[in-house]
Design brief:
The complex is a heterodimer of chains A (about 475) and B (about 450). With about 475 residues, chain A is an alpha/beta fold. Chain A has helices at about 1-10, 20, 25-30, 45-55, 70, 100-105, 105-120, 130-135, 140-150, 165-180, 210-220, 230-235, 255-265, 275-290, 295-325, 335-340, 340-345, 360-370, 385-390, 405-410, 430-445, 450-455, 455-470, and strands spanning about 60-65, 90-95, 125-130, 155-160, 195-200, 220-225, 245, 265-270, 330, 350-355, 380, 400, 415-420. Chain A folds into three domains: about 35-180, Nitrogenase molybdenum iron protein domain (Rossmann fold, 3-Layer(aba) Sandwich); about 195-310, Rossmann fold; about 325-425, Rossmann fold (3-Layer(aba) Sandwich), CATH 3.40.50.1980. Chain A has 23 helices and 13 strands. In chain A, helix 18 links the parallel strand 10 (about 350-355) and strand 11 (about 380). In chain A, helix 10 (about 165-180) runs parallel beside helix 13 (about 255-265). In chain A, about 50% of the residues are buried. Chain B is built from 19 helices and 15 strands. The interface between A and B is large, with 68 and 66 residues. Strand 2 of chain A pairs antiparallel with strand 2 of chain B.
Chain lengths: ~475, ~450
């Protein structure tokens, strides 16, 4: 447990994080985790976060050491897509019982690893530690070590008991496990001056595949994606990349920064969401690769691709302008997305009547102001009741948010579109932004909204009568 | 009838089982103005919430005591107290239902004592029902948690009536967790047609049936109210549905003297006949014409369906009471169980009409389904069904890739009829897509020197 505490302290003291560096020494010690409020908290735990970050590695057996809740209640519920193995979608758990609580779960865990290796022969087994084994003191490091000696298959302990903190911390703890046990343990067959890592991209709904063709065209090779559609060995040899992109949200900033420190891989923070962001991302990739020794002509080719793709995307969005012009959008999401999709929405003629900035940084907020000017209605914390009122009173025509709040819109009989990770439509890159505008149009244009707002016949009969009574 | 076998594997692969606390939480969601609260790390709540949102496609009220590592080690009284106070302040609930989790049970938090202390320290909470139950994740399964929560509500809220003036028209209904909101609607109409006034504990049809409320509400949108639970003491009868509800029915009988009748299932001709006869007896009314017609329809459906279900091999994965209902009802039209897998022990398993019931996971079901014609389990069976190339009838929780999960009706004559149609249709369509070809029988006889006895048996049906 002490080593885990050390890791957590270490993760909190992130020098590459601007927010962290602005804090006093004392504040920094407290970590970047807000104290969770009992009875008022929402969101996943550190285990959830670790699983989100690593499960997209497709050929690994992800074994959850804990009681049935941790895996049984949650498995196969995310849309990370794979172009190969489907093993990552198989749910493995030790399903701890009272026996394990009394006698310890280490032998049980060891046997479980053996069964997996014998039946599925994966290139690696990731062992996730949850609250109960952490409480009873199971030493999963030693079990993993013994299992490696015995079976020769890498077994990676991921220290992610849910009670140490929220999802975001879990992302980072997952990253620490990769840094400690995986990254740098294999060598790629060959390298090129155009090899990059993409860190913190999970290929949800296949979004990485919206980006990959552009990189292919430019001759940029994704040496490793951590972790979307990745193979175990690809993560293991990621230390040979020339440059790295850290996908927004800082969830895996520790991985990007430590790989820079250890292996001299410079990184930039970028986003695949939004047309201009996508272009900036391509430019940054080219710039860093050139800085690392790639042929400077890469930049010209990159600019050409950007110009062509931007023109195509804006042209594809144009037909929606008339249909969507003046429609009001309530944007309830976090961080980068609070502004990165705004330009595309505005281009399609939509008006942003509000954006939530709960998880946004100061930079994010500045960007919102720049984009939206005086119209920038930023909400720090939009209570569900207030969202409902805004929609019910038609202060917005559509809400874009995560799945959690969809019913607030739907119960107000108002359009809603998923913009967070559970969605089934890919919104990355140039194609993705066009797809997003098309999705909004598809939602708004649906005649269902008129239908569902139709008054029930008994309401129509009774309402005038009531009104009459009130008048009298 | 069935032998109960426990899987010997150390690693559960593709879990069929879900945990007790969220089963308990779902029971509390059938109460009006309720906020279920899991005493554990916030992930316990988050996973349950996502699961129910995807199944019901509804907003799900579910809170957490947000236990940190330190709080877990020191004990969670303050977190529970804070959570209760915050919930009351923010959502003004009528009932808070608290379920413990694995981690707080390992620590040994005394939830019952916590609630007593909170009551003593906060008289302002007197108007709010606070019910708690011990539901460690490392024991039992979803349906056990549900049953515990219902029993806890009875023990907390029902008081012995003095003097007991029973209203013979009133009945209590204790549905197991496999009884959907659609099933409850079906049963309510049935009971009312006999002139009876049912109170369901809990009543998911009021809260998770997908209606549009007048205004925003942060707690449940409907369900059974605390005063209705208290009034259960005065009912003439209790009807329990599923073996899992026996303890709750017994608790109600012990506290308030209400006799109970437990129906192990309400899917299938014979149990529905029993229900009709029972309702007719306690209400003194003949079975309404509507149900006489429905019975005829079910009998006809069984005749039509037996062509398609008879002799077909079924692989079924479900919690004990649902498994019992499905194996029985489909068996009665000739369906044969290739493999039956369940989550937790129950006296009903031994009575299940098949050779063997395995306490296991979906990997076991997939292995046992080799050669089966249909896979019957919740949505997590989808990968197995795809690999086996057989149809997948989704039933149970979760059904995250299906619209209308809450409205799947399998109780009563009509529900049984529709179940047989749905399963029969899947088998029929699958059979059609495997129509015979000109070469199928050219070399169809096996080699004359079949070696194993096993093969020889299969040759001569």
């Amino acid at each position: 447990m002490t080593s885990l505490n050390q890791t957590i302290q270490d993760v909190f003291n992130e020098p590459a994080c601007g927010k962290n560096q602005a804090k006093s020494e004392k504040e920094r010690k407290k970590g970047c985790t807000k104290q969770l409020q009992p009875g008022g908290a929402a969101g996943g735990c550190a285990f959830d976060g670790a699983k989100i970050a690593l499960q997209p590695i497709t050929d690994v057996a992800h074994l959850v050491h804990g009681p049935i809740a941790c895996e049984g209640n949650s498995w196969d519920n995310r849309g990370a897509a794979s172009s190969g193995s489907t093993l990552y979608r198989t749910g493995f758990t030790t399903d701890m019982t009272e026996n394990d609580i009394v006698f310890g779960g280490e032998k049980h865990l060891f046997k479980a690893i053996r069964e997996i290796v014998e039946k599925y022969a994966p290139p690696a087994v990731f062992v996730y530690e949850t609250c109960v084994p952490a409480m009873i003191g199971d030493d999963i490091d030693t079990v993993c070590k013994k299992a490696v000696e015995k079976f020769g298959t890498p077994c990676i302990p991921i220290h992610s008991p849910g009670f140490v903190g929220p999802k975001n911390l879990g992302n980072k703890l997952a990253g620490e496990a990769m840094l400690k046990h995986v990254i740098g343990t294999k060598e790629p067959e060959y390298t090129t001056p155009y090899d990059i890592n993409v860190i913190g991209e999970y290929n949800l709904s296949g979004e990485l595949w919206q980006i990959r063709p552009l990189l292919d065209e430019l001759g940029i090779r994704i040496l490793s994606c951590i972790s979307g559609d990745a193979h175990y060995e690809e993560v293991a040899w990621s230390h040979r990349a020339k440059a790295a992109m850290m996908v927004c949200s800082k969830a895996m900033i520790n991985v990007a920064r430590k790989m820079e420190e250890r292996y001299g891989i410079p990184f930039f923070e970028g986003s695949f969401y939004g047309i201009e962001d996508m272009s900036d991302t391509l430019r940054e990739m080219a710039r860093l690769l050139i800085q690392q020794g790639a042929d400077p002509e890469l930049m010209e080719r990159t600019e050409a691709v950007i110009a062509r793709e931007e023109a195509r995307a804006w042209a594809a969005i144009e037909p929606y302008r008339q249909r969507l012009s003046g429609k009001k959008v309530l944007l309830v999401t976090g961080g980068v997305k609070s502004w990165s999709v705004v330009a595309a929405l505005q281009e399609a003629g939509l008006r942003i009547v509000g954006t939530s900035v709960k998880k946004s940084t100061r930079e994010d907020k500045d960007k919102i102001k720049k984009l939206m000017g005086d119209e920038a209605h930023m909400f720090d914390n939009l209570a569900p009741r207030e969202m409902y009122r805004k929609l019910k009173e038609a202060e917005a025509d559509i809400m874009l948010s995560g799945g959690r709040s969809q019913f607030i819109a739907l119960k107000a009989s108002m359009p809603w579109m998923d913009i967070n990770q559970e969605r089934h439509v890919a919104f990355a890159g140039y194609h993705g932004m066009v797809a997003m505008v098309a999705e909004i149009d598809r939602t708004l244009a649906n005649p269902v909204w008129q239908e569902v707002r139709r008054a029930a016949p008994w309401d129509e009969v009774e309402a005038p009568r009531q009104a009459g009574r009130e008048a009298a | 009838m069935a032998a109960i076998v426990k899987s010997k594997k150390a690693c559960t692969v593709n879990p069929l089982k879900m945990s007790q606390p969220i089963g308990g939480a779902l029971a509390f969601m059938g109460m009006r103005g309720a906020m279920p609260l899991l005493h554990g790390s916030q992930g316990c709540t988050s996973f349950g919430l996502v699961l129910f949102v995807r199944h019901f496609r509804e907003a799900i009220p579910l809170q957490t005591t947000a236990m940190s590592e330190v709080a877990t080690v020191l004990g969670g009284f303050e977190n529970v107290e804070q959570a209760v106070l915050n919930i009351v302040e923010k959502t003004r609930p009528e009932l808070i239902g608290i379920c413990s989790t694995g981690v707080t049970e390992v620590k040994g938090d005394d939830l019952k004592g916590f609630v007593q202390q909170i009551r003593a320290r906060h008289p302002e909470l007197d108007g709010v029902e606070i019910v708690q139950c011990a539901t460690p994740d490392f024991a039992g399964a979803f349906q056990d948690g549900w049953a515990k929560a219902v029993t806890a509500m009875i023990e907390e809220m029902v008081v012995s009536p003095e003097p007991a003036i029973r209203d013979p028209r009133r009945i209590n209904v204790l549905p197991g967790c496999h009884v959907t909101p659609g099933d409850i609607d079906e049963l309510r109409a049935l009971f009312e047609d006999f002139g009876l006034v049912p109170t369901f504990l809990p009543d998911l049809s009021g809260s998770l049936d997908g209606h549009i409320p007048e205004d925003f509400t942060p707690t449940t949108l409907g369900g059974t109210g605390p005063e209705e639970v208290r009034a259960m003491a005065l009912a003439g009868w209790t009807i329990a549905i599923g073996e899992q509800m026996r303890t709750a029915a017994e608790a109600l009988e012990a506290r308030a003297g209400v006799p109970f009748r437990l129906f192990e299932r309400l899917t299938g001709l014979a149990p529905c006949d029993e229900l009709m006869a029972f309702l007719s007896r306690i209400s003194g009314k003949p079975v309404p014409v509507r149900y006489r017609r429905q019975r005829g329809q079910l009998v006809d459906a069984m005749l039509d369906a037996h062509f398609h279900i008879g002799g077909r091999k079924l692989a079924i994965g479900a919690e004990p009471d649902l498994l019992f209902a499905l194996v029985s009802a489909l068996g009665e039209v000739g369906g044969e169980v290739a493999c039956a897998v369940t989550t937790t022990t129950s006296p009903i398993l031994a009575q299940t009409p098949c050779a063997e019931v395995l306490l296991g996971d979906l990997e076991d079901l997939e292995a046992g389904a080799n050669g089966a014609d249909i896979l019957i389990t919740h949505s997590h069976g989808r990968q197995a069904a795809a690999r086996l190339h057989i149809p997948h009838f989704r039933i149970g929780i979760p059904m995250f890739d299906t619209l209308g999960a809450a409205h799947l009706v399998t109780v009563g004559y009509r529900g049984t009829r529709d179940l047989l149609f749905a399963v029969g249709n899947m088998l029929m369509h699958h059979h059609q897509s495997h129509a015979p070809g000109p070469e199928d029988w050219r070399d169809a006889w096996p080699e004359p020197h079949a070696t194993s006895h096993q093969t020889a048996q299969e040759l001569v049906p």
